[in-house]
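At your convenience, could you comment on the folded chain following this short note?
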Amino acid sequence: MSALNSEGVSAKLLLLKDLDSTIDFSKATNQFEIVLYLAERREPVPVGELAKVTGDSRKSILDSLRKLERKGLITKLEGRGELYVGLSEQGMEFVRKLLEMLFPSGHQRGEVLDTPVRLNISKELATSINLYRLIVLAGLSRKGCVTLEEASRVAIGGARGLEVVVESFTKPPTRLFKVVKKGGTNVLVLDKQGLEVLKRTPHYRALQRSPLYRLLVALTGTPWVKEAGTRLNAGLGALSLVSMAGALFFGNALLLAIGIGASTLIVGINQALAKLMSLDLE
């Protein structure tokens, strides 16, 4: 990612969130590769060609194509005994937004995506996702920081992906983080510019306006809604199971009430969390 001021970084991260709600890049890299390759070719291509280009099996490609079709990003057609696919209008708009985010002045509408550009976009996008995750993790953590080990576990590309972020964003002109020692361990903390960017993220705004999300982060220690919900459900589920078993074994009405209450709470929490799920880049 090129050097930007905090306003520019924040704008990119917000657009990234919108794009990632269409394709979860961190878990669907072949969908991403397919979309970019189709944008490069600008014409329907056979499934066999996609399998060759991405290095994935035909079965894997067909599975990805089903998902992309459900999202409205591609169109399909049969020809010469083979299935051909191309980008839909919605798919082209998706790529336009992506290029707009990564290359605000370097690309024109309709410009061909050659292979080096496509590979560069992959790297830029991975860095953007890693940057967003680390800003939110460091900023909303109860510790006010994230260890390098923790950061490498959530970064796309692991230690190498983290290294790119550290190299690019711990020095001027876009210094978002500082690497400092805390308890003998190297940790990432947000610098002044990083805090400015954090305050413009959907996660930070949700923390300010949603008591439920604030409680969720405080109880579970994670800003990711899905992960926090899983942790709460596991804890309440165990409480419900143990209480119900105790009620049956001892005939204790209080334990039965606790078990029923925990089960009811799980349902209520999941319904409430559904409204916050769109926050996640996970």
